Amino acid sequence: MNKVVISVLLACASLLLTNTAAAQVYGGIGAGKTSWSLNCTSTCSASKPDVHLTLGYDLGQDWSVEGRFSKLSDVTETTKQWRFRSYQTEVAGLRRFMVQNNLVTFGKFGVTYTRFSPQETNGATVEKSNRFSPMVGVGLAYKITNLVAVRGEIETRQIRFMEQNSKITSVSLGIQKAF
């Protein structure tokens, strides 16, 4: 996990150092909710909102690359009494489509690295695991000023966890500022 975070930070730092007049660096913070398609839908619940930090680099008018670190919702299974915490690091490419002067839609595709860490197991077998997976998403951004925008998005990825395939869908709302 540390190697991935360091790699993302180094890549973002190199983008900051090579910033050109046509390109722009942006950062953002957001919160949202994640749903999990685990095999315990009636007894699993996700608590606490997701929190994420984003750092991106515009590659022109229509394209961006961005990195994101997220603390996803904790998941608790009430009958077996286990709980796990998950973190995610993501690198994605964005394609933007201008709808109006201040309104932009975007699609994104990338790869995520998700780390699952059991917190309470009460004797249940809950594996600690780290997974890479592809991610796709769509979103909408509204520019409040030339440098500040409100951004909402939905993204999904499928991972293998606890010997089953699980679809993870995240919905978030945040704010971003260009530098």
From TrEMBL:
SUPFAM superfamilies: OMPA-like
Main localization (coarse): membrane
Signal sequence bounds: 1-23
Coiled-coil residue windows: none
Keyword presence, Signal: yes
Domain Outer membrane protein beta-barrel: 9-174
UniProt keyword Signal, yes or no: yes
Keyword vocabulary terms for this entry: Signal
One Pfam match: OMP_b-brl
Subcellular location as annotated: Cell outer membrane
The protein, known as: Outer membrane protein beta-barrel domain-containing protein
Species per Swiss-Prot/TrEMBL record: Undibacterium squillarum
